[in-house]
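Supplementary Note 3. Input sequence used for the single-chain structure prediction.
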Amino acid sequence: MVKQEDTVVAAPETVEIAIVGAGIVGLATALRLAAEGREVLLIDPNEPGSGASFGNAGTLAEYACMPVGNPAVLRQLPKLLLDPDSPFALRWTAFFQLAPWLVRFVRQSLPAATRANAMALAGLLAEALPAWEEMVKEADMADLMRRNGCLYLYRRKSDFAKAAGGRALRAGFGVHQEVLTPGEVAALEPSLPPAGACGLYFPDSMNVTDPKTLMRRLLDAATARGVSVAQAAISGLQVEADGVRLSGSGLQVKANTVVIAAGAQSRALAMQAGDSVPLETERGYHLEFPTEAPLLNRPVCPVDLGFYMTPMTGRLRVAGTVELGGLAAPANPRRLALLDRGVRQFFPPLGRPSSEWLGFRPSLPDSRPVIGPSRGSRKVIHAFGHGHLGLTLAPITARLVAELIAGRGDPDCLAPFAVDRFSA
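The predicted structure, written as discrete structure tokens, is reproduced below.
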């Protein structure tokens, strides 16, 4: 995706701030800190922005305060896990590894926990789009953004009825949402087949027309501000009296502060910093289909299928579903086939997909990211676990990390995302 030889430099022996992970959260944080005059080293074994940051649905979902675990999902969980074609799947070979996480997930899906988690997310999401608009200006990305809303499509009245709790919860947090009649859905998206479907429209939502180019722009803006990039897999983290030592695959560097933003790969480093985090992996998939003209005007999510159809430059991306199953297993062809069958319910003439992708979302049982200092040392800052909201929350996470490092901001606003919540 991004050519390493264009960006990688020899890592310094010492640096003010090292960021482990060059996905969207790491890139946004690097840019923010560099803009404040900090010396920053960005470290990743892969191409910057090449993981889930590249392969997502491209939506900035400021409305998405409903956690993945909630009473509606809990009621359907046995069916969802046992049906191989459901939007929520489990690789049963990983069941024993996942069992402790699933127990926590069930507890976080109860009504009181759901509301607390939604409240925390809503507070963070309230500043997500303003933070994005700041970053868009900083990295010259306005041409890659569309503010045309997002549409949830309900093809069955029963699905719409089951989602009443989510609509009420979002309304209580001030999320702008509009219920649409079938005619209003057709007016917004005339290419969709008539199905008598009602819709839920989020008019303030934004989407990205080309995630690959967006990541390149962010990287270019960061390096123009002086950010260094090193290609290395960090396996060792040791807090010392005068800093934090990082080591791995030919790299040794000492930083005054380390930011762990390694997404689904963050758990082992957090453990070395002294924090046990119940981080697991959601395996996300996408297919892309070339299109001469856009088939849709905005991202559309058929809620019964659990994926997004997002118009991007020269193509339609079909992305989503949840598969629990770790980092090691190869792509599951059933999940890709599920996406293919699903999108053809709307656009039967689509040809063969031009690309397919598997990536890894860092998933926590309560759907809240971890943002804040390690319990072991304030020299280590966590910024991972954003689940489905990494793209949406990257700039606001970057702002919070920068404020934390500078000693600014309100500590209370980070309390819902603190790592010590898992020790309760």
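The radius of gyration is 21 Å. The chain is about 35% helix and 25% strand.
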